[in-house]
Amino acid sequence: MEIIVLSDPAAVGRHAARLIADVLGRRPDPVLGVATGSSPQATYSELAALVREGLDLSRATAFALDEYVGLDPAHPEAYRSVIHRDVTVPLRMDPARVHVPDGAAVDLRAACMQYEEAIEAAGGIDVQLLGIGANGHIGFNEPGSSLGSRTRVKTLAPRTRRDNARFFGGDAGAVPVHCLTQGIGTILRARSVLLVATGESKAAAVAAMAEGPLGAFCPASALQLHERATVVVDEAAASLLGDREYYDFARDNAPGGALDFD
Length: 262
Ligand code: GLP
Prior knowledge:
This protein is of the alpha/beta class. It has one domain (2-254): 3-Layer(aba) Sandwich (Rossmann fold), CATH 3.40.50. It is built from eight helices and ten strands. The protein has helices at residues 9-25, 41-52, 79-88, 108-121, 158-163, 184-188, 203-211, 244-252, and strands at residues 2-6, 31-34, 61-64, 66-68, 98-99, 127-130, 152-155, 178-181, 193-197, 229-234. The strands form two sheets. A seven-stranded parallel sheet has the order 1-10-9-6-2-3-5, sandwiched between helices. It has a three-stranded antiparallel sheet with strand order 4-8-7. Helix 1 crosses helix 2. It is globular, with a radius of gyration of 17 Å. The model has no long low-confidence stretch (mean pLDDT 95). The structure holds 2-amino-2-deoxy-6-O-phosphono-alpha-D-glucopyranose. 2-amino-2-deoxy-6-O-phosphono-alpha-D-glucopyranose (GLP) binds at residues 35-39, 65-66, 131-133, 139-140, 160, 164.
């Protein structure tokens, strides 16, 4: 795991966008895994700036990590809507190539299997962008999720519903109870993963992910198993990391980033 600590959220967004653009720019039909939440917003803004400067993502395919179950897909906080607003439009992607799990499907299990098949059919994900929940979740894989899990229905943790209440008028009761999420096993199949985290509220989760034991109670710790995992964090999110000396030394003496896989 490569850990890059930068000064502030804007620097995190700039660096993450450049890493993603490097990977996508080298592939004729790149496949990007996209995340929702506040963490990747700066990355999307910076990627949008690169698109305005000439980065062409019109042939790129995207797969979202997760979706709420039972929300009208047109609801502004349904991840289908969020991804359209934050990713498809600003990155000038072809909407037909942007996929979100179908949380409104009658047969949710079948929808999950089809989602896994669609990722496979696209050739797998080149770079998976991730945020991290304050409880260490990635996607909506809550603590206790199988480290080998694939796309499936999950029940959200009460803490996650409280954390996401801000998107639902401050009412945790309005946050759906269930979701579809790529599994941890699905995420680990991406050719590279890039996790971004900013702010003090993520510091404990970041430290547990990077320096704690590998285990299902910190789902993000599964990234310790990934051969090309990059973590870009700001000072606040890095504040509980123990081995800053090494991370900064390695950042300043990098032989080539973990996303550099061609
Ligand atoms: C959300 C999403 C995750 C996201 C995480 C953190 O509920 N399902 O993909 O990474 O929780 O969100 P935020 O970046 O807003 O703190």
